[in-house]
Design goal:
Elements: E1 5-9, H1 13-22, E2 27-31, H2 43-47, H3 57-61, E3 66-69, E4 73-77, E5 82-85, E6 90-92, E7 95-98, E8 102-104, H4 112-115, E9 117-118, H5 122-130, E10 137-141, H6 145-157, E11 162-166, H7 177-189, E12 193-195, E13 200-204, E14 207-210, E15 213-216, E16 219-222, E17 226-228, H8 231-235, E18 245-246, E19 259-261, E20 266-267, E21 269-270, E22 274-275, H9 280-294, E23 308-312, E24 318-323, E25 329-335, H10 336-353
Parallel strand pairs: 1-2, 1-7, 2-3, 7-19, 9-16, 10-11, 10-16, 11-12, 18-20
Antiparallel strand pairs: 4-5, 5-6, 8-17, 13-14, 14-15, 21-22, 23-24, 24-25
Cofactor: FAD
Family: Belongs to the NADH dehydrogenase family.
Protein name: FAD-dependent oxidoreductase
């Protein structure tokens, strides 16, 4: 042990890997309100009623010098190097790892936060659909990866329900032509009705109001965007326009170098790759790197290159889209059962890498 006290706030993909990595040689306090690890990249499976994969945080940190403080952070005192919990306790640190991640962004759309289910409420969504007296329509808002996976899983798991996927742009529009074509074909095979170029302007009790007219729905799921926690900016860390904390090549805050920022909370720019997007694919490597850096197992700057993007499209199909190191699309895409099996292998690898 090197004697320093590291505090990690947030136990998502980046936070837990940073804590378990640093805990090999340092004393770590992990602050997070939950007892179980939330697998955000499997929330669509939870909504569809499949078995949840949520290991206990106690099991993930076992054998490391990590103490889990089950609490919520209220404030950060950067000058005093203290984290203030909502219950009033203050926890001092030598080094802080800020890993509070992101949550559903409602973007000020009237009625969205009050009436729609964000991805964090996947279990409640499952109960709502299963407990309905009669099937109706589920409208999934968002044509990105989260919206696509949710629409596919819901349509397959609850065939009596009509699933509509409503997107402000093109569904899967960032994929290669081959990849997007496969996504649309699989969604239609599952009976999903697709409405593109239909920006949502309001969520009502009857469903959605969009730029192309109303969409009737008994249940609305919001998967349009994610945003970082505002706590970084409120505490005084330097942030980019999107609210993510600006960091250097060792993932240290540009304004407060005693604070490392990882995962969706970090605006990290890597030479040859660009500014990293939010997601598990970047959060895990960031957390793993900071864990090694703080425990003295590396001194090199953070490096990262993209290799692929993947989707599950129900239980029997998927898509693995190869990309260049800067995340630009390659023409090659593996589809169908092959894509689904590769995605399953990746999910297992993610679970194994948390320690």
């Amino acid at each position: 042990m090197n004697g320093q006290h590291i505090v990690v706030i947030g136990a998502g993909y980046a936070g837990i890997t940073a804590a378990t990595g640093a805990g090999r040689r340092c004393r770590v306090t992990l602050i997070a309100p939950e007892a179980l690890f939330a697998q955000r990249i499997r929330q669509h499976e939870t909504a569809a009623g499949h078995r949840e994969h949520r290991p206990a945080l106690a099991a993930l940190i076992r054998g490391r010098s990590v103490t889990h403080r089950q609490a919520r952070v209220g404030e950060i005192d950067l000058a005093g190097r203290k984290v203030l919990l909502e219950d009033g306790e203050a926890i001092g640190y030598d080094t802080l790892v800020y890993a509070l991640g992101s949550s559903t962004a409602w973007r000020g759309v009237p009625g969205a936060a009050e009436s729609a289910y964000g991805v964090e409420r996947a279990a409640e969504l499952r109960g709502r659909v299963r407990g309905a007296e009669r099937p109706g329509t589920v409208a999934v808002v968002g044509g990105g990866a989260t919206g696509i996976e949710l629409a596919a899983e819901l349509a397959e798991a609850y065939p009596a329900w009509q699933v509509r996927l409503v997107a402000a742009g093109r569904v899967g529009g960032w994929f290669s032509a081959k990849g997007r074509s496969h996504v649309l074909r699989e969604l239609r095979r599952l009976g999903v009705q697709i409405q593109e170029e239909a920006e949502v302007t309001e969520v009502t009790r009857q469903g959605l109001l969009t730029a192309r007219g109303p969409v009737e729905a008994e249940v609305v799921v919001w998967a349009a965007a994610m945003e970082p926690s505002p706590l970084a900016a409120q505490a005084g860390l330097g942030v980019a326009d999107d609210g993510r904390a600006l960091v250097d090549d060792r993932l240290r805050s540009l304004s407060h170098p005693e604070v490392h920022v990882v995962g969706d909370a970090a605006s990290a720019t890597v030479a040859g790759t660009g500014t990293l997007r939010m997601g598990c694919a970047t959060a895990l490597p960031m957390g793993r790197y900071v864990g090694k850096l703080l425990s003295g197992r590396t001194s090199e700057p953070f490096a990262y290159r993209y290799t692929l993007q993947c989707l599950s499209l129900g239980r029997r199909s998927g898509l693995v889209q190869l990309v260049r190191g800067d995340d630009a699309m390659r023409p090659t895409a593996y589809r169908g059962l092959t894509g689904r099996l590769v995605k399953a292998v990746i999910l297992r690898g993610v679970a194994a890498s948390l320690r």
